[in-house]
Amino acid sequence: MSNISFNSDYNLNMQGFNTNEAFNPVRLNEMFAQVLGSISAVQARTYGNTIDVRNFAPGDGSDQSVQIRAFFDAAKDGDILLFTPGHYKVTRPGLFYTFSGRSVIIRGLPGAVLEMSDQGLSIVNSSHVEVTGLTLKRSTQASWGAGKTGISIRNSSNVLVQNNEISQFTDAIGVIGSNSLDSPSRNIVIRNNKLYDLGEEPIVVRSNLSFVIINENDCYRYLGDGILVKATWDLHIMNNYLHDPILSTDVDYDVFTGGQQGTNVPKAGGGISCNNEGGETGARNMTIHGNNVYGTSFGVILAGFKGAMVTSNVLKNIRLTSAISVSFLPTPFNPNNIKNHEFIIQGNFIDSILQSAPTAAIEARTTVGPEGLDIGIIADNIILPQGNHWGIMANGNIIVRSNYIAQAGIAMDLKNGVVAIANIIEPGFETPQPERMVNIYDNVTFSNNSIKGKGTVIKILGSRNIITGNRMQYEGKWWAVHLETNNYKVEHNLIRDNILTVGSTADGRYLYGVSSINDGKNVVIDTLQDHNGNLYQLADHLVLTGPNSTKWKIIIDAQGQLKTTKL
User: Fold this and answer.
1) Cβ–Cβ contacts within 10 Å for residue 94, how many?
2) Model pTM?
3) What 3-state class would DSSP assign to 274?
């Protein structure tokens, strides 16, 4: 038999990023390539003895608690505990067995089942942990908040948990790092496990962990978060499948909640979450890539971190909240108001939000931190909310670029420094009174975008915005561009060089909101073609002059109607 040794032969030349170092995805990928390469290099080597469980227990489904404890006691550092085919049932209140200070290697062959009456296995203070190929199940279903963990690993490094099937616990796999921020537990790999029927989370990693890979796990029928991350650094969550969680409408929902009710009991299992609700140090340097998240209460939620890449994920039928959310706000999930730095949300596919109340497919906020590095990029995503929802809500120093949005109530809601360029916005979700397509507040640059829709194309609710070079096709019955002067100061906006085409079915106003209050305080110079084919140059109380040009004076009256005078 072969095993992975992470002892003296496994000596990676890697040091964790310090708290002041910038996020470096190239370096991070190199580190994880080294981790995986080292695993492959040492997997063929064997350390210690192989101990067969059948030398201790019959594997006949009877209570074999004494025999299995003797089996575990027999292992010394580096020995392999081998579960050959059979049904090994054990009973004991609390954790059945704790390996303390030993290098632990547990392997299961196909057909080997280890059944626990209460909690599973605990491994603490180990320099090498390997649990592979094991079917681990609890005798009865554990409920929300019960604290019944399948595999619990604490203060241990060089951990490999793969190819296992774990069910009916509260958490399937829980890894808690060291007590020292300066000396974290490191090199954790959790991959290709089948985790289901869980009262809370399939996978939890938290508290001073570094160099962590969570890869290709299949997680379903659970009530908590799918993958929960706290205080973990240099992390890859890749190619996992989170789907079909427990729902409040399921006939066995009460079994998973234990009959509990209240705001803390979920109505549906979630997706991938990174937060600091317990006051932990913020996570750093995360890659969340290539995951499929279907039918969960949320998709990806991040709060209080430094450096995150959320790329190429597929999120479908998200039930309760945003598909992808980034927030710095002080909430129960970020009580210490840890700031975010540097995130990229790119190349994701979001299809359908099932919540009836409006929510956002992608919602992101930044704030100016002490290093001045708060910046986000939302790019190249395909977003189909399929309902009266926002496509993208962005607030702060965020670049919103080259996204495709269709079937949204409001395609974009942009505030406080957002730069939105080269996005394609297709017609929104159909209602008797379609919503506006884009909301623009203060200090936003909105340029070179393509917009089609029956709702108001652009609604401006603030000042100092630059809106240039957009191509807009309007089919609505209201107005194409709306200066919202009720309750908002709309001044010093530059709206020019946009091309507005009015569809044949449109009978609304072209520009609305010009009044004596803001006369002369905004610049509007756009090209407009109405549904009769007439071409105008539209201006807000400006006379257009120039060599060989027709001179027009364009005025918008109090009812928002276009009045033209040829000079």
Assistant:
1) 10
2) 0.86
3) strand
